[in-house]
Amino acid sequence: MNRLPSLYLSHGAPTLPIDPTLPSGAFTHLGAELPRPRAVLMLSAHWGTQQPVASIAAHPETIHDFYGFPRALYEIRYPAPGAPNVAERAAALLNAAGIATATTEHGLDHGAWVPMLLMFPEADVPVAQLSIQPRADAAHHFALGRALRPLRDEGVMVIGSGQITHNLRAADFGAAPEDADPRVAEFTDWFEAKLAARDVDALLDYRRQAPHAALMHPTDEHLLPVFTALGAADDDYQLGIQSLGTYQRVLAMTNYVFASAAG
């Protein structure tokens, strides 16, 4: 099997699968266009632990970790099989790299099952989830990706799921897409220019260097998964950008594909 890309997905609101005003079709298209993995290792902004934990659940439950949404959303189940072997392999790679990692049984939170539902609607791609560390920095999450790189040669797609900008306190839920705060584009333009230049040092220092970083990410758990996807990528990766717009004034959705230069 050819080396798989690593991905960072902006999973947006939990209503992405049921709200026709949101860009669910882009995720469906992405799943159809990318090479099909034998399994996915998912890092979601919504499962945080002190140290990395890999889920070895054979049949992960669909976790509805949100409140106040339409009833139809709580009725969705995503019955994809787990990937215990992938979780164990990921834990072994991290431990070998000196990053203490545990295993447990954990379901799929909405940062995991929402994009999986859209990309692989038949629920026939096994998925394991690996926790992020909200109190650790970008460099830590980049190191996770570096340790996980071999998975890409083993048919496993490493996916980070979060949001390229995420400040719910600054969001205006009545705003139209054209009402986007211009500071969103300043931040995302900077981030994408550094990704395109493969300027890892600047990206890891984004909180100091990127314009409006603290406004776009008062806390950075929704951005941390991108650094693991970046770490798992080849040094000479080819960057694919899927821009999906800005919602509620400050919530941008962009997906990044880090493809192998060798194809």
Automatic annotation (TrEMBL):
UniProt family annotation: Belongs to the DODA-type extradiol aromatic ring-opening dioxygenase family.
InterPro entries: Extradiol_dOase_DODA, Xdiol_dOase_suB
Residue span, Extradiol ring-cleavage dioxygenase class III enzyme subunit B domain: 34-258
Entry keyword annotation includes Metal-binding: yes
Source species: Papaver nudicaule (Iceland poppy)
Source species, domain of life: Eukaryota
Official protein name in the record: Extradiol ring-cleavage dioxygenase class III enzyme subunit B domain-containing protein
MF annotations from Gene Ontology: ferrous iron binding; oxidoreductase activity, acting on single donors with incorporation of molecular oxygen, incorporation of two atoms of oxygen; zinc ion binding
CC cofactor: Zn(2+)
Keywords assigned by UniProt, alphabetized: Dioxygenase, Metal-binding, Oxidoreductase, Zinc
